[in-house]
Amino acid sequence: MRIEYHRTLIADRVRNEAFASALEAVIEPGKTVVADIGAGTGLLALMAMKLGAREVYLYEAAEVAEVAEKILKANRARNCHLMPCHSTEMQDPPKADLIISETLGNYPFEEDIIETLNDARRRFLKRGGTIIPRRIEQFVAPVITDRIHRELCVWDDVGFDLDLRSAKRMSLNNIYVRTLQIEDLLNKGRNAKAWDGVDFTKRNSSNRKGEASWRLLSAKTIYGFATWWTAELTPTVHLSTAPDAPRTHWEQLYFPLMSPIKARPGETLAISLRSRTSRDAGTHVAWTVEVRDANDSQRERQSMNLDKGYLP
Predict the structure, then answer these.
(1) Model pTM?
(2) Rounded to 5 degrees, what are φ and ψ at 7?
(3) Where are the alpha helices (DSSP H) in the chain?
(4) Rounded to whole angstroms, how far apart are CA atoms 60 and 134?
(5) Facing residues of 83 across strands?
(6) 92 in a structural domain
(7) CA-based angle 215:218:220, to the nearest 5?
(8) What pLDDT tens digit does each residue of the chain (312 aa) get?
(9) Residue 51 within any structural domain of the chain
(10) Are 162 and 181 in contact (CB under 8 A)?
(11) Residue 116 falls within a domain, yes or no?
(12) Are residues 185 and 299 in the same domain?
């Protein structure tokens, strides 16, 4: 069990305060029944208890459930009930007025939150109930600085008259968790584009696909792409992993190119992103980038796939 991971969650005040505000906005003292899915050490469940929730059901399949049990006991949380299983495995679950699930990753769906909440909305939620988060929107922006690209291309600089291009290709078919600054982004991120959105009040597919494009006004060298997400917890409470948002334990993702693209004024830069996620198979992501000239003819195309970034 990686307790260090849970320590980073507890230390993330931006995250904690956002979820506390969302819970306060929704919980009706003495009435609201809460299902906390992926409860971890039980922090959100205890917040709900302190805000007056009538009953709180915690679902946690990992070993950290043993820690949560001790924490609930230490806090005399008699109306908090720990279910040491994945929520999808629960037979005849107690109905809840509120489902909350903070099972978000740097890539937001890597912990399979889509299928988890599809199931929870159908089997756990009372009619007229609430889900937190309500919506996730993903954003993408071109990266115009070379600092991460140079890091990933160290294979070229090893020396000794060696050819390490095969390893370099694998490196560039990977996705990297990095902290990016707005100065790293085209137009300082002001023209970042939304490429995907999920509304958890409805059924969603775990296969995601989206596109974004930019018409360039001046010549730019593109080294890769940055992605991040914004979560609507309630209509008035939002949480973002954007480069200019308050820092959280989450970071941005860097999607490399196989080689930098020198785009010309008037050309269109476009990216297509695709992912599929499941509990059994994990997360698979692919991205394709192309440049179209002023006549809309394709001038360059690069395709990357996370599956190619792993040793067979």
Answers:
(1) 0.95
(2) -65, -40
(3) 3-11, 13-26, 43-50, 64-74, 113-123, 147-152, 165-172
(4) 21
(5) 59
(6) yes
(7) 90
(8) 589 999 999 999 999 999 999 999 999 999 999 999 999 999 999 999 999 999 999 999 999 999 999 999 999 999 999 999 999 999 999 999 999 999 999 999 999 999 999 999 999 999 999 999 999 999 999 999 999 999 999 999 998 999 999 999 999 999 999 999 999 999 999 999 999 999 999 999 999 999 999 999 999 999 999 999 999 999 999 999 999 999 999 999 999 999 999 999 999 999 999 999 998 889 999 999 999 999 999 999 999 999 999 877
(9) yes
(10) no
(11) no
(12) yes
Specify the pLDDT at position 1: 57
Report the chain's terminal Cα–Cα distance, integer Å. Answer: 27
CB-neighbour burial class of residue 190 (10 A; exposed 0-12, middle 13-18, buried 19+): exposed
Residues 144 and 265 in one domain: yes
CATH number of the domain bearing residue 298 = 2.70.160.11
Q: How many residues does the chain have?
A: 312
Same domain, 157 and 269: yes
Residue 163 CB burial class (10 angstroms; 0-12, 13-18, ≥19): exposed
For 40-73, give the DSSP string: TTSHHHHHHHHTT-SEEEEE--STHHHHHHHHHH
Q: What per-residue confidence (pLDDT) applies to 311?
A: 76
Asked whether residue 55 falls in the same domain as residue 171, the answer is no
Q: Show the domain range for 34.
A: 3-102
For 272, residues 6+ apart whose C-beta sits below 8 A from its C-beta are 209, 210, 211, 287, 288, 289
Give a yes or no: residue 107 inside a domain.
no
Quick one: 217 and 290 in the same domain?
Answer: yes
8 Å CB contact between 223 and 263: no
Q: Which residue type is seen at 191?
A: N
Residue pair 292/298 in contact by the 8 Å Cβ criterion: yes
Residue that is written with structure tokens 């690069």 in the block: 302
Do 178 and 288 belong to one domain?
A: yes
